[in-house]
């Protein structure tokens, strides 16, 4: 079961106010109406208005302590409580106008339907009118996905209470939404992430890194996000690199962009044994794709710093082939290869000098990855992985068989050791060849 906690903290407001480029003249405000059903749209509308330099008034119907009201206050909006669940539009306009006039504002844009976006450029022209209360101009292209975020930053997390707040806070200025998937943490990861301004999705039990990624893809797809950038929760990745990776994806139109330790301008302070292990895993992963030329290889197959476009988000959200454990990174690359995605790498720095940099032992992690790669190769390329080795094994068995009978004819003594060796290689090779043929036939049948 997944529990969704949507939280926008005061941190969002503070960062938004400090970084926004105001376009409204002092004294102008926008009026919204809060209901029980429009909380999320209201928060985004408030943030967009504040980015444009407008003060915000929010009329609340019914309960004055509802979720919409609390969040509006946290974002710095001026709340106008109304003691009824329903009012005529003209009455709402009058109540908001009175509140804005009493606060000495020179004009008020009224926008009751916050499911549609305000065209602030056109609305600014209307402010020259002598009327105090003006209907906001609506964007002509507003549609069902008008509120879809452009960039969602996804952060899978498990017991990361020491670092999660810092990672979220650094990600907020470069994202439309920060989404933390808490994979059954036993500490305060979810609470601290929500307090820092993230939307938190909680797994009731620890299901694994791959399961957290799957939830991240599903949530991004539900939001119709243009791009999903996934980073680690332990602070190894630098969120300030996100705009550079997103820009590279826009320019190349690649479905997947990887923040690589080993690409140009990339760097890492990984220990020598980790570098060696990564080299082996990168080699096996690229060979499993059937890519022979090193120039065409993905240099950092295990980097968790990745940007996905809308096509990749949609297909990964519905792919049951992504494993639940740490091998999910490799599974995603196989998905990308199978679907013909363009994969680009951008150099980035991955810092291992952080506390709790990895929750899994590197040796067990490496064994899991190699095992997963071999299983994938066996499934995807049975002729290559089983057929060719099986043929070679049969040929070796035939050689040992010839040696066995040559010795027997020359000495009159039957060499049992050579005979057993010949039988082993011969039977193993024949079995591997037949298995390869069967798996290849099944794969062709399933593909058709």
UniProtKB/TrEMBL annotation:
InterPro entries: Glyco_trans_2-like, Glycosyltransferase_2, Nucleotide-diphossugar_trans. Keywords: Membrane, Transferase, Transmembrane, Transmembrane helix. The chain crosses the membrane at residues 386-405, 417-439. GO terms for molecular function: transferase activity. Residues 153-314 form the Glycosyltransferase 2-like domain. Gene3D superfamilies: Spore Coat Polysaccharide Biosynthesis Protein SpsA, Chain A (3.90.550.10). Pfam families: Glycos_transf_2. PANTHER family: RFBJ PROTEIN (PTHR48090:SF7), UNDECAPRENYL-PHOSPHATE 4-DEOXY-4-FORMAMIDO-L-ARABINOSE TRANSFERASE-RELATED (PTHR48090). This is Glycosyltransferase. It comes from Halomicrobium mukohataei. The lineage of its organism: Archaea, Methanobacteriati, Methanobacteriota, Stenosarchaea group, Halobacteria.
């Amino acid at each position: 079961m997944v529990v969704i906690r949507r939280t926008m903290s005061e941190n969002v407001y503070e960062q938004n106010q400090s970084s926004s480029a105001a376009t409204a003249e002092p004294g102008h405000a926008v009026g919204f109406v809060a209901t029980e059903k429009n909380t999320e749209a209201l928060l985004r509308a408030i943030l967009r208005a504040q980015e444009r330099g407008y003060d915000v008034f929010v009329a609340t119907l019914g309960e004055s302590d509802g979720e919409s009201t609390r969040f509006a206050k946290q974002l710095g909006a001026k709340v106008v409580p109304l003691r009824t669940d329903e009012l005529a539009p003209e009455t709402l306009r009058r109540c908001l106008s009175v509140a804005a006039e009493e606060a000495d504002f020179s004009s008020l844009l009224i926008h009751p339907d916050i499911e549609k976006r305000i065209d602030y450029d056109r609305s600014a022209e209307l402010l020259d009118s002598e009327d105090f209360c003006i209907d906001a101009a609506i964007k002509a292209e507003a549609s069902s996905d008008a509120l879809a975020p452009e960039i969602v930053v996804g952060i899978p997390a498990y017991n990361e209470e020491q670092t999660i707040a810092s990672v979220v806070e650094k990600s907020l200025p470069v994202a439309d939404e920060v989404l933390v998937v808490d994979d059954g943490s036993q500490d305060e990861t979810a609470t601290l992430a929500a307090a820092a301004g993230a939307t938190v999705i909680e797994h009731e039990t620890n299901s694994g890194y791959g399961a957290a990624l799957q939830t991240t893809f599903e949530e991004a797809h539900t939001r119709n996000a243009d791009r999903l950038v996934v980073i680690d929760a332990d602070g190894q990745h630098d969120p300030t690199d996100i705009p550079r990776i997103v820009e590279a994806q826009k320019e190349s139109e690649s479905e997947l962009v990887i923040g690589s330790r080993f690409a140009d301008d990339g760097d890492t302070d990984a220990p020598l044994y980790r570098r060696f292990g990564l080299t082996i895993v990168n080699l096996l992963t690229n060979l499993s794709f059937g890519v022979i030329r090193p120039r065409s290889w993905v240099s950092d197959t295990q980097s968790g710093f990745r940007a996905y476009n809308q096509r990749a988000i949609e297909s990964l959200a519905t792919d049951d082939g992504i494993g639940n454990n740490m091998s999910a990174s490799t599974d995603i690359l196989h998905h990308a290869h199978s679907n013909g995605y363009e994969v680009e790498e951008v150099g980035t720095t991955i810092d291992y000098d952080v506390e709790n940099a990895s929750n899994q032992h590197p040796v067990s992690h490496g064994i899991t990855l190699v095992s997963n790669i071999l299983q994938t190769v066996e499934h995807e390329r049975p002729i290559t992985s089983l057929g060719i080795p099986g043929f070679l094994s049969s040929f070796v068995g035939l050689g040992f068989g010839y040696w066995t009978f040559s010795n027997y004819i020359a000495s009159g003594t039957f060499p049992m050791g050579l005979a057993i060796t010949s039988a082993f290689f011969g039977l193993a090779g024949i079995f591997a060849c037949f298995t390869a043929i069967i798996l290849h036939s099944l794969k062709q049948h399933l593909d058709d």
